[in-house]
Design a protein that fits this description.
- This protein is an alpha/beta fold.
- The protein is built from ten helices and eight strands.
- Helix 3 links the parallel strand 3 and strand 4.
- The longest helix is centred in the middle third of the chain and has 18 residues.
- The protein starts with 6 loop residues before the first strand and ends with a helix.
Length: about 260
Amino acid sequence: MTLNDFQVKDLSISSNKDFEENKHQKSNNSHDNWNICVVMPAYNESKTIKNVIEDLKERNLNMVIIDDGSHDKTYKIAENSLYNHGSIYRHIINRGLGAALETGIKAALAKNADIIITFDADGQHDPDDIIPVCKPIMEKRADVVIGTRNFNEMPASKKFGNTVMNLITRIFYGIHVNDSQSGLRAFNRKAANVLDINSRGYGVSSEIIGEIKKYNLKVEEVEIKTIYTDYSMSKGTNLIVGLKILAKLIIDILK
């Protein structure tokens, strides 16, 4: 599939002048010389996506939002909120996190992004972590940067599932990172171009770690803040999701 296969609405910033003339935007000179694009998959995120978009707009960040077949008002809310700050792609059916990331990364590359940030739509990430996560790429120390959550602050149910996934990722892909399931990551163009995403669901997080090793990409980890709410706790990787990913990895190997 190509980007032309999806419904898309482009609400992109046309130039830096758009930043300067918007009195409601905060100035952030730390990324003025970089085309940073935030890729945000969203599936039934109508409760949170408006606030997430507004926070990113305040920081002058351009976005590619992928509505992955939502049944609620995610698409309409995002369309109304995004004003002049990016594009919305829409999967007609729910295709999974991996497919949404693939669509978003391809779109960001087509927009000539220098750095591509993946960012969750459920409100768990602090947008002030974006530039620190980008910094190792800006300083040419890394091709990929993983925003690493503090496991000591992670609720027990999440900590166990994520610890298991770190172990599974190390066993199946032969590379250790401190947070293999983090949704906040940065990629330079080199890394984004070589990623070959096949996993449709949450297994994509581990698959991308495998791609880092496969292509000998330079990776760094930067500690990030995580905002835990009852809503964000209901999302992402837990033990059940981890077991499903493990089963899928085993099936793929036995094929």
